[in-house]
Amino acid sequence: MKILIIRFSSIGDIVLTTPVVRCIKKQIPNAEIHFLTKTNFVSLVENNPYVSKIYSIKDKVAEVAEALKKENYDVVIDLHKNVRSAQAKRATSSKAFSFNKLNIEKWLLVNLKINKLPNIHIVDRYFETLKTLGVVNDNLGLDYFIPEKDVIDINASFNLPANNYHALVVGGSYYTKQIPLNKLQEICALSDKPIVVLGGKEDAATGLQLEKEFPKKVFSACGKFNINQSASIVKQADKVITSDTGLMHIASAFKKDIISVWGNTVPEFGMYPYLAGKNSKILEVKNLSCRPCSKLGYSKCPKGHFKCMQDINVTEIF
C-alpha cells in the first residue's frame, strides 16, 4: 500500500506526526510511506527510516502536483487540513482521510473561554484519522532521528559533560509564547547546573546577554546550530526548560524530563509534551481571564501586561 502523509509545518507539528508514520509502517504489511511538507522542514523527515520518499514545496502545491498524481497513492492522510493540503489531495485523486483540527472548539476557548475541546492529545487525535486503516497507537511516543554528522560533542563544544546540564529554550514562533528575559535571568540564577541556551539566529542577542551575565555557567548555542544539532544538544541534557515550542516536542521524543512554561497558549489545545520523562512538569498561570488569547500567539501581549508569563513562579522549576 502506497500512502502519502501531508503535514506542511511546523517543527513541533511535524514531530508529532512521527507515531503515525511509525505505526502505519509497522502495522500495514509492505506499506510505502511518502511525506509531503514544506522545504524548510525536510530535515525533520529525511532521516526517518519509516519514510520512503519526501515531496516538498516552497510555496505552492503546483510545484509537485504532477509528480504526486503519477504516484497513484492508495491513501492520502491529511494531517494539516488547509487549502494547500486540499489542493494536494485533489492532485492525487486518491482516497483521503483528513484530521479534524477542531477549529470551532479552539475559537470558543480563545474568544469566549468556553472549553469544548476533548481531553485528548493531538497525537491520539491524529490516530482517529487512521481508524479506517485499522492502525492503532503503539504508545511508544514520538520519534526523532539525528544523522551522525549532526551529533554534537558537548564536551568539545561547551566543555561540559553530557547529561549534566540543563537545556534552556529561549526561542519561539511568537513573542507571547516565549519566556521573557527577566524570567530567563531568574532561571539562570537559580539553576544548580550549567545551562546551554537554545534558539535561532533571532535569539542570538538574548543568548549572548545571558552568557555574559552568567559566565562559566551559561553557554549560548543560539543561531549556531541547525535543528538536528540543537536536537542533539537537547538529547544530551539532564533536563529541558522550554516554552511551547518545537524543541519541547523534540525533547519529548527523547523522553527527557521537561519543564514546560506556558504563556498565551494552553495545554488544553492538546499539544503538551507527549509521553515525556516521568518528572516532567507544566508551569502555567491558571484562571487568568485573558488566557488563552490566541491558538498561536502574538508579537506582543494584547493587554500589555503579559501576566501569563510574568506571573510564572520559576522557583518551582528547581
Structural overview:
The model has no long low-confidence stretch (mean pLDDT 97). The chain has helices at residues 11-15, 18-27, 65-71, 83-92, 103-112, 122-128, 154-158, 181-190, 204-213, 227-235, 246-253, 307-310, and strands at residues 2-6, 32-38, 53-57, 75-78, 95-98, 166-169, 195-198, 218-220, 239-243, 257-261, 281-283. The relative contact order is 0.13. The chain is globular, with a radius of gyration of 20 Å. The protein is an alpha/beta fold. The protein is 30% helix and 15% strand. It has 12 helices and 11 strands. It folds into 2 domains: 2-133, Rossmann fold (3-Layer(aba) Sandwich); 151-317, Rossmann fold. It has a 6-stranded parallel beta sheet with strand order 8-7-6-9-10-11, sandwiched between helices.
Descriptive labels:
five-stranded parallel β-sheet; 318 residues; alpha/beta; Rossmann fold; globular; six-stranded parallel β-sheet
Provide a concise account of the structure shown.
The protein contains 12 helices and 11 strands.
